Sulfate transport system permease protein CysW (Cellvibrio japonicus), 298 residues
Amino acid sequence: MAGAVSAFGRRFSRANEATTEPLWVRVLLIVVALVFLALFLVIPLIAVFVEAFSRGTQVYWAAITEPDAWHAIKLTLLAAAISVPLNVVFGVAAAWSITKFQFRGKQALVTLIDLPFAVSPVVAGLIYVLLFGAHSWLGVWLLDNDIKIIFAVPGIVLATIFVTFPFIARELIPLMEEQGTSYEEASLTLGASGWQTFWRVTLPSIKWGLLYGIILCNARAMGEFGAVSVVSGHIRGQTNTLPLHIEILYNEYQFAAAFAAASLLAGLALITLLVKSLLEWQHVRDREKAARAAAQET
């Protein structure tokens, strides 16, 4: 036993030669982090799944396949399917503009990208109500032309886009700033067009950051509650996304159904984390492979 502890200490010490903290401090910090994660993340997550299946698989299946729940699932996926591709286009365009060009107002653009992080999602929903609601000047025109945005699917999509649009741009901007413009300049010097430079030079170098941003954006789009709650109107079977459906079930004391729907949302989040981990593992593997190839060439 003593030998095992000693071996662990030596291995731990070798892995952290750059740090100066004593071993007991490092072990204590790791234990505190693990206990914190277990108490506030792992145990509550397990409790959701235990409660969801507490009344049997038949009740669970009935809860997630009843028409209102199924409509909420489809609407959640629809909002994510529309907002994520639009955010990809915006994020790449914004990151490209900020990192490749010098123009007046550049810092203001960076600040505006961060705005959804600073503004409460509820406020974001209220902004769209003020713009497109029945009592706004745009609302009158929309009603005259039989166009419905608030308390309808377009409002939900707009609110989802607002709260998720910084994720991809914020992943790409630091990455593209670090890479600089030398590869693009070399490509253009060799006669490549702008599109060829983007497709064959820029995109491969940012693909991992882009995929990571897409995953974060998709996770937030599926779980968004505040902004969507304001613009949806909570119309059961029409404008309820999965988080809103869970809230309604819980307020009606349908706990088994509420936790069943919550477990489905948690399952989607876990799948997202799994994909993210796989991408990070693949990224590290590619970097190590590239480093070994470079070392062999030298």
Remarks:
- The chain has 15 helices and no strands.
- The mean pLDDT is 85.
- The chain has two domains: 17-53, 56-297.
